[in-house]
Structures are given as structure tokens and as C-alpha cells.
Fold TEF4.
Amino acid sequence: MSQDVTIKTEKDEAFTNAFPLGKLPAFIGTKGFKLYETLAIATYLLSLVPKDKIGAVLGKNNEQYASVIKYLSLFNQEFIPALFQTLFMINGRYPYNKKQCDENFGKVDVVASILESRLAEFTFLVGERASFADFFAVACLAPGLQTILAKPFAQKYPNITRWFTTVSKNAFFGDRFAQFAIAEKPLVYTPPKKEKKPAQEQQPKKEKKEAKPAAPAASSEEPAEAPKPKHPLELLGRPKAALDEWKRVYSNEETRETAIPWFWKNQYDPEEWSLWKVDYKYNDELTLTFMSNNLVGGFFNRLSASTKYMFGCMVVYGENNNNGITGAFLVRGQDYKPAFDVAPDWESYEFTKLDANDEESKKFIDNMFAWDQPVIVNGESKEIADGKVFK
């Protein structure tokens, strides 16, 4: 069975009608058969190639096929997001967050440990020959070996390194890896240097001029210039504990071990601050988890005018087409509204005041700051899929 493939790089009206989500790549086959998602398209196209030309890259039987899908999903859902989010934060494409980088490196190590264990006894991930699982995993791992993983990763996982070298030489890749080399040292984050302001040239002293007679008082009919509007929470004055210090601790220290105990000991004062649970009201309208996380990001952007007066974390729990948004915030003062109503969409969220003396409330706050335990929703445990920090 042969099938012609036409590649288009522009989204036109026909594309939008066929694929409302607008995701690339997208595929339209014979008789209008449509696919999106990289793995679905790649798996389908590979299934069209006769086995005598490409081998059993999708497995020899149902068990092997399921194992191929298992590894594809593992890399697509766990490894790729963790690797590239960290890479982009380290190379400056995304804002740097040490906590998120450390968590992502942890995910990379978990996936690597799974592979290392398998490859200690087998040459390939599935079966006796290289499969699509091997090809896809090697392609995903290569950018990391050239940047943030480098030689230390290769030395830590010798079975993965042996496997990577073997699979990357497979004819499937052509000459793609002919000049490939693992970086000697990992790429690390370098804080941007602050630009020094040029010294102001000294201006010659001006001779004193005779004082001019004072200008006549402004007419009472002329309106006085309106004072610059201030954030309503500015009227509360400066708190005893500066919020910036807590944000620094949270960004640079281990969350559970150091940051959270520091928060309760040094930052939270119930007379100056309040704690709030924030829930999205329309969870039944949410679809994909990454879109829900983007919704949170947009909300945070619109809250920027209140950055000096609060700190919080919001997470997306659940899975695609069955997820929700919740979070916890520390807010200056005892009312949430002055801090949140700077965002036009603040009324899309429900606000519940939390009592730090209540054990369940405190446990919830700790988990929102750490993201390391499931969220309990209506008595049901929900895994955290993603989240964002407002600071």
C-alpha cells in the first residue's frame, strides 16, 4: 500500500476547518482520514511500510506493540516536557526557576533509571531489534546529551550510553548522527549581568540667577492635577517580613526541607497576611491539561499589578478532558478582593479563606507550594499534571 504525502507549512482556512485545535503536525489521508499528534501520525505512517523493508519497528506481536507505545508515551509525556522546559530556562528562553529545574531533572532521572534497568539485560527497549521506541527515545535524548545532560549523564547511565551509540548508528537515521558528540560539560544557568549605568558627565556649575518673583497662585477655577493612583493595599504600609525575601527562599531552596518551614516561621503573620484557596469555577469546560495551564498563566499575567502584595501557586490536576485548577495564595491584608480584582477575569475563580491552625488547610497549602502529592477533590485523589508560581 502506497500513500503520497504532501507537506504544507501554512495554516489556511481549509486547515482550520479540518483541525479546529490548530495543532501541528496534522495529517489527512485517503478518504479524508485525519490525524493529529506526532506519535499517532508517525505510528500510522510506519504501519504502511512493508516489514521486509523496515522490519518490525512497531513490534512483532500485540505485547511488543503495546510496549512500543509505552515507551513512546513515557518520553512524550514525561521526558520531553521536563528536558526542554529545563533547557529553555537555562538558556534564557524561559524565566529561570531553580525549583522547577530541580524537579524536572528529577523526572529525567526517573525515566533514565527505567531505561538503565531495562538495558542492563537487553540490547533494545522492545524485542531483539531496534524498534520505533528506540528511534524515538534516541531522538529525544540527543538534545539533552549535547546541552544540559552531557558527559556526567552518560557516565551515570552506561547502559543508556551504549544503547544510544548503537541505535544512533542505525540506518533508520541515515547520517543524522554522523557528527554527533556528547558535550563534555553540562550547560548551566548563568544569571544575566546587570548593566552598569554610565557615569554622568559632570556639568559645569551654572551661575546663580536672580530669583524671579513668585508666580501668582493658580486660579481656584483651574482643576488641580489628579494624584497618581496607588494600589489599595499600599495603604497597609510595609509588612514586618518583606515578601521578596520569601520569594528568594522559595526559588533557591529545597521546597519541603527548607522553604516551607521558613515560610511558617518567618513569613506568615496572621495579623498582616491572609491565606486563600483559589478554585476555577468552570472546570467542566476545561479540555487539555496544557491549555488549562496556559489559562493559569494568562490569569497570572493579568495579576501583575499585585505582585508586591501576594504570592501563590496554582496547579492543574487530573488528565486531558478531565482536569481542574486549584491553588493557594498568601495575600497582604485580610481581604482577597483588592489583590485579585486587578485582573479582569478574577470573578471566574472562587476564593475560600484558609485557617493556618487547621491541619488539613495547612497540608493543602504546603502541597500547593511543593506540588509533590496528589490533590484531594471531593474525596478522590487527583495527580498534579502541571502548575505555575505567581511571584
